[in-house]
Design a protein that fits this description.
The complex is a heterotetramer, with one copy of chain A, two copies of chain B and one copy of chain C. Chain A is 47% helix and 19% strand. Chain A contains eleven helices and twelve strands. In chain A, strand 6, helix 6 and strand 7 form a beta-alpha-beta unit. In chain A, helix 5 runs parallel beside helix 6 and helix 7 packs across helix 8. The chains are: A alpha/beta, B mainly alpha, C alpha/beta. At the B-D interface, helix 6, helix 7, helix 13 and helix 15 of B face helix 6, helix 7, helix 13 and helix 15 of D. The structure holds adenosine-5'-triphosphate (2 copies) and magnesium ion (2 copies). Chains B, D: One of its GO terms (molecular function) is transmembrane transporter activity.
């Protein structure tokens, strides 16, 4: 009987804890939800926390650094216990982060580190690593496809983007890392924006001056889809599709689809850098968050790894 | 007399000469610029923008502005993509659907402007935000890709050596120019923009004109959207926004007045082409993107400034008052 | 003969603080020329706008062709053959003359520009209007715009044509032309509703006169059964002396000398203005009087020529410099050059001398108010309050605001370009007194006027321009209408 | 008589009532909304926008528009950051430098508009592109962070319980309102916007006014930029762009006319606050960003529509018809 009582008591505390949990607000300040990847990420995180019994609200800054500061402040006002921040401009979040923590709201910087902050950092990789990953995909493909090419014989172009400091870092890393491959003659340029159509237009223009380009590395996958749209179109200057490749970063259904199609040269997007599937991402993120929410000590950094995705990787 | 004619010809075509000048400059700077493929390229790249700008120009001539065109394009892109891929509707129905959505959104702008009696610029300032929200809500931020080849033909196909988008542009430009110049409906647009009260008193239904102009702008926005999506072979909600900005810049450059009542479709086409050639040429020459921004701004200022200067030079003795 | 074609019954129209029309009823007969007469702000234009559907009346109805309308719309109004020439012209500046004339005539199908030009020329020809149909309206002078308005109304084959102050900016010969037009129309049994502040015109062409006062109908009389005096007393409610004030105050000092001025429309113009003098300028429309004064005032560029003020050569590059040198200009076009339509009366009046009403940078509101009150009383500006926006005033009252604005500027040399345009007889007399007062104080006045009577009555000397050049100068003893017309027109 | 006064009071303050209404609504929907911290929060968050909008409103009153304000903010942000961190200049010099850059860019806008005699909206359409290029060229797309605490005090400090940015806003709003309403310079701005030709003939140097107004707008843009950077504690080239859009929306909402010559600083402040409260409240309530867009657009339309309707409302029988 005692045992039964104890059991109900335990159940009650558990239920109380549950109820307590659902009163606990977790904020997710995401930089942007304008593409499938980011949108799905925001859903995964929200559902993840809710499955654990917490209340979670997502606020998208829609790419504006100032808006993001406001949203974090608003989360603090709402009494959030924890805010997961995916920074638009991480350097500008140091102070708002500090203020939040002073008022009892923990901050977890996610994917981008908040410079100079004492916040916990969960990252899959730094921008530099992502950039290096993209470069490696390109470099490997060239080594495999043009095994006998001499130094500087293969024309490669980087479609960078430096609209934000973060982006500039990644683009810079692609440039630096790709330079290690001696086979390549590298040109760096920036389309008008980091969108699909801007990249498509830039590719069209590019082939006017450099019809022999074999490789285009893009800041993100959206841009590589744009390059693909041009190369696969009727007016394309690339006749032998197997002799061409483009790579970028971030995974989405569309990009997976294109990567798979590249096996039969029905697409020239031959791979991308992935920050892992959503399950891994969520698991990485939740580990420190759970500790914080339970009031336990956490380590300052949790780093995941990037994955290089190619058609072969899918076969495995 | 002869010299005056030449002078006035030059005055009326300053922008065409500027366009030619810029082309000449780039031909010297880059060997690749002056090739048929590249020029067709520029035309194709800017096809959607020309179509959208023509739509916006009509609204501007009627005395308004459409700031929502970019987001309208985005909504139509998603709706078209969804109809094609998610609902698997046949192509003609899809096109009809996309165009209808465009017209409806345009009508909404016009209707609200008439109903609340506020300036179209203000209305579309509000609806652009709304349309953006709607587009993302429909798409759920997802891209719709792998579109049907028959659909992609609209953006990527060729008729003989001429890309389909270029043909669409030419057809639209010719029709709209004709309507604007030669039909009563067209002249009423100018009248409504030039002096709405006078037009109303002369029996022109200014509200109907406004509604019609917005419907046409919505229609052309939808065509632009379809061309854009078909060219990319994929649709997502970020396609379109920003177009309003380029379209208005092109219109202004092309001599469409902010105040209404003035401007020619021809000018708009030239305006877009100047912007398009600039960005193509600067990339071919290899200018960095930020240097491009600065140069583009400067050229805009100089072109518009020179055009205005030419037009303001006082026309002497237009009216000869002979006393009989 | 006197068959009623149109009757307006108990028309009431209210604006905030004003009853513009208060139960006004008037009948108009077929084929008559029917004048509306009343002081500025009496409600004449408002009545017309109700008739054309430009504004909605609050109460009352309109009977026409056996139909009764509680509210008019522009469409219905036109469908009954009513055409209106508005006081503030209503043309579309960015379109050509031909397009404006033909606007609304057709609404479907294709435009035939050749035909439009032909129609326009056909309309212009009988009336000696020499304007190219392809000219953009915005390139026309106000007077020419007025001619186009008139032509446009005639072209529509209307049954009723309303003319709201059509002659306010026309010179004698154009007015004669207009009379001819009206007589021709009358023969075709067209009804003309005619508004004018020029009394002599009423006696020349109208059959009946309806008098309005303060938004109310006073009476309707047959023109040939009345005279000027009784009309005026019905209109203003008291007797008026109408003689031009005499004076004798011309000094020998030359305050302004223009030497060999060549500008956009003028060639080699020279003249002198003495202290205490009223110097009249005459000429046909397009003679370049306005342009000359704009150049003197620094509003337009001069190609060459010198200007001496009180013997000192001054390079007047902008109106600001002119004003600083004691010149004031009352522009010809009140809507575009004179009034700030969306600003209150008090700020309109204060704009030229606002610096004087300020300490350091801060404006003294009380003084702005006091000054506005002063001029509203002096010029009898009809308004509910000095906080009314100028755009809500009647045409004549706007003109008075423009006058007040320049008078407040306290200049030594004042250029009046068509000063009494649209101003009623009573107020006009006040303005003449004011001008006399000004010259008696030792100021000098240049007056451009197309109103021959006023020009002859007020000027001490008249200079006639023709095609931008001085074609003659008349001293007071030599004044005659014929002499001036001869100098003004080409031989 | 009494009722008329109340009616006209309501008519003149529709937006204030709308603001109060929105606040009331959010107080009911979210327990966190109506707290001193949150309201101060909203004020602080929108401080920079209020300052920039006041600048833009002056340009609009003078008959123009400033589309370049967002990019101007970006250039000033980078210049200030660079002076502080890269050049390690002392704070007063840094501030002076930032403000000077703002004024110079503003003057450039005004100068070009005067020189080429083209509408300020067109000029700033071109200069916004130029400024953006310049900002990125200076910053090299890098962020400048870890700014000095004394500098950050401007954006994050408190005087008593009041945040410094709020104090700056109040000071600026009061001064500008005073200048606009009570000085002749202010009246000249209205005159130049209401009817430039009449103003010129009345001895107002319209070109000088235009130049001055742009300089002030540049100055206020620089202040906004400094507040913004100090609040974030970091500067980069993406800070600012987009402000032009929000500022113009706020101005329009606050009753500044597109045509010029009309509007009050008070209105602009209310306009920004409505937008600010909306976005704060909607987040507190937990609306998704895209739903927020749609709601924001709707509320904009309704507010402006209702305001316009109120002002245009026919006066029925308010005036008692006295028969003399
Ligand atoms: N939109 C308006 N708002 C307020 N009051 C107005 C408006 N329009 C006209 N009024 C007022 O209505 C009255 C009648 O004006 P109306 O223009 O009919 O006068 P009018 O007889 O034509 O005078 P004028 O001889 O000066 O042209 C005036 O007192 C005027 O101030
Ligand atoms: N390019 C122009 N831009 C603006 N206004 C102009 C232009 N050219 C002429 N005007 C206006 O047209 C009018 C000139 O009228 P016009 O050429 O008939 O001379 P005028 O002799 O002064 O006429 P009036 O005898 O009627 O006074 C002036 O009011 C002037 O301001
Ligand atoms: Mg009148
Ligand atoms: Mg004149």
């Amino acid at each position: 009987e005692d045992a039964a009582k104890e059991e109900t008591a335990a159940e009650e505390t558990a239920r109380a804890a549950e109820a307590d949990k659902s009163d606990t607000l977790v904020g997710f300040a995401i930089s942007y939800t304008g593409n499938g990847f980011m949108q799905q990420l925001s859903n995964v995180v929200k559902e993840g926390f809710e499955k654990e019994g917490y209340t979670c609200e997502v606020a998208s800054a829609d790419g504006d650094a100032t808006t993001q500061i406001e949203q974090i402040e608003n989360f603090v006002t709402m009494g959030a216990k924890l805010v997961v921040v995916m920074g638009v401009d991480p350097t500008g979040l140091t102070d708002v982060g500090k203020r939040a923590m002073e008022q009892g709201t923990a901050i977890v910087a996610f994917t981008t580190k908040i410079e100079g902050g004492e916040t916990t950092y969960v990252g899959s990789a730094s921008e530099a690593e992502i950039g290096e990953g993209i470069a490696q995909l390109g470099s490997d493909w060239v080594d495999k496809t043009f095994a006998d090419a001499g130094d500087g014989e293969i024309e490669a172009v980087i479609f960078g983007y430096s609209g934000t400091p973060e982006a500039a870092e990644r683009s810079e890393a692609i440039k630096t890392a790709l330079a290690d491959n001696a086979k390549l003659k590298i040109t760096y340029m920036e389309p008008e924006s980091n969108s699909l159509d801007a990249a498509q237009q830039a590719a069209e223009n590019l082939f006017q001056t450099k019809p022999d380009t074999k490789l285009i590395l893009c800041y993100n996958s959206g841009m590589s889809n744009g390059v693909n749209a041009y190369v696969m179109s009727g007016g394309s200057a690339v006749k032998d599709k197997s002799q061409f490749a483009t790579f970028g970063s971030d995974i989405s259904e569309e990009i997976i689809n294109n990567i798979m199609a590249s096996e039969n040269n029905e697409s020239v997007v031959r791979g991308c850098v992935s920050l892992g599937d959503f399950d891994t991402i969520w698991a990485d993120l939740y580990a420190p968050c759970a500790l914080i929410l339970e009031g336990k000590e956490v380590e300052p950094e949790y780093l995941g790894e990037i994955q290089l995705v190619t058609a072969e990787a899918f076969k495995k | 007399m002869e010299t005056t004619k030449v002078q006035s010809f030059i005055r009326n075509n300053v922008l065409v000469f500027i366009l030619i000048g810029i082309c000449a400059l780039f031909s010297i700077l880059s060997p690749n610029f002056l090739s048929v493929t590249n020029l067709l390229n520029v035309a194709t790249q800017n096809a959607y923008l020309i179509i959208a700008s023509i739509g916006v120009s009509l609204v501007m001539i009627s005395g308004g502005t459409d700031l929502s065109i970019g987001q309208l394009i985005s909504v139509v892109a998603i709706c078209t993509g969804a109809a094609l891929e998610w609902m698997q509707l046949p192509l003609p129905i899809v096109l009809l659907f996309g165009l209808t959505v465009g017209v409806l959104l345009g009508l909404f702008n016009g209707f609200v402007a008439n109903l609340l009696n506020i300036h179209p610029m203000i209305v579309t300032l509000a609806t652009m935000t709304m349309f953006q929200g709607i587009s993302f809500l429909i798409s759920g931020s997802k891209a719709i890709y792998d579109l049907d080849a028959s659909f992609k033909y609209i953006g990527q196909g060729y008729v003989g050596p001429i890309p389909v988008p270029v043909i669409i542009v030419i057809v639209i430009a010719v029709i709209v120019d004709f309507v604007a110049k030669k039909t009563y409906f067209g002249r009423f647009i100018y009248a409504a923009g030039g002096n709405p009260e006078a037009a109303r008193l002369a029996g022109v239904s200014v509200k109907t004109i406004k509604l019609a102009v917005f419907a046409i702008c919505g229609f052309l926005g939808a065509v632009a959207s379809i061309v854009m999506v078909a060219r990319a072979g994929s649709a997502n909600s970020t396609m379109g926004p920003g177009t309003e900005f380029n379209a208005i810049t092109a219109c202004v450059l092309g001599g469409i007045s902010f105040i209404g009542g003035e401007g020619r479709v021809k000018g708009v086409v030239v305006g877009v082409l100047i912007l398009g050639v600039l960005s193509n040429g600067m990339q071919l020459v290899g200018l960095g993107i930020y240097v491009q921004y600065v140069v583009k701004g400067l050229i805009l200022l100089l072109s518009i400034g020179y055009d205005t200067y030419q037009k303001q030079a006082k026309v002497k003795k237009v009216v000869t008052t002979k006393t009989a | 003969m006197s068959e009623t074609i149109l009757s307006m019954k108990d028309i009431t129209k209210r604006y905030p603080g004003v009853v513009a029309l208060n139960k006004v009823s008037v009948d108009f007969h077929k084929g008559e020329v029917h004048a509306l007469l009343g002081e500025n702000g009496a409600g004449k234009s408002t009545l017309i706008k109700v008739l054309s559907g430009a504004i909605e009346n609050d109460e009352g109805s309109i009977d026409i062709d056996g139909c009764t309308y509680e509210k008019m719309t522009p469409k219905i109004s036109r469908s009954h053959g009513i055409e209106v020439i508005y006081q503030e012209y209503n043309l579309i500046n960015s379109l050509t003359v031909a397009e404006n004339i033909c606007l609304g005539a057709k609404s479907k199908g294709l435009v035939d520009y050749k035909e439009m030009e032909q129609i326009t020329n056909d309309i212009f020809k009988p009336y000696n209007i020499n304007i190219h149909p392809k000219t953009l309206v915005r390139d026309l002078s106000p007077a020419h715009q007025q001619l186009v308005e008139i032509a446009k109304a005639i072209s529509k084959n209307a049954k009723i044509i309303v003319m709201d102050e059509p002659t306010a900016q026309l010179t004698v010969s154009e007015v004669e032309n207009l009379y001819d037009i009206i007589r021709t129309l009358q023969k075709k049994n067209v009804t003309i509703i005619y508004i004018s502040h020029r009394m002599e015109e009423l006696f020349t062409i109208t059959d009946r006169v309806t008098i309005m006062r303060d938004g109310q109908y006073v009476t309707t009389v047959k023109t040939d059964e009345t005279d000027r005096k009784s009309l005026i007393s019905l209109m203003v409610g008291r007797e008026l002396t109408e003689t031009y004030p005499g004076r004798d105050c011309i000094k020998d000092e030359i305050v302004l000398e223009v030497k060999n001025l060549t500008g956009y429309k003028n060639e080699d113009v020279s003249f002198k203005l003495k202290k205490g003098e009223i110097l009249g300028f005459s000429g046909l429309i397009g003679a370049g009087r306005t342009e000359l004064m704009r150049a003197v005032f620094g509003a337009d560029k001069k190609h060459s020529g010198q200007i001496f003020i009180k013997g000192k050569n001054v390079d007047i590059k902008s109106p600001k410099i002119a004003i600083m040198n004691g010149i004031g200009l009352i522009p010809e076009d009140r809507k575009w050059q004179g009034c700030f339509l969306n600003m209150t009366i008090e700020w309109n009046i204060a704009i030229t001398n606002i610096r004087k009403l300020s300490r350091r940078f801060v404006v003294n509101d009380a003084r702005v108010k006091a000054q506005a009150e002063e001029y509203v009383n002096k010029l009898n500006i009809k308004t509910p309050s000095i906080l009314q926006k100028a755009g809500n005033l009647s045409g004549g009252n706007q003109q008075k605001v423009v006058l007040a604005k320049v008078l407040a500027g306290d200049s030594d040399i004042i250029i009046f370009d068509e000063p009494t345009r649209g101003i009623d007889v009573g107020a006009r007399h006040e303005i003449y007194l004011l001008m006399s007062e000004l010259v008696k104080q030792g100021r000098s006045i240049i007056m451009i006027s197309s109103d021959m009577e006023e020009l002859l009555g007020m000027s001490d000397r008249i200079i006639v321009l023709r095609e931008g050049k001085v074609s003659g100068e008349l001293a007071r003893e030599e004044f005659s209408q014929n002499q001036i017309l001869e100098l003004a027109s080409l031989e």
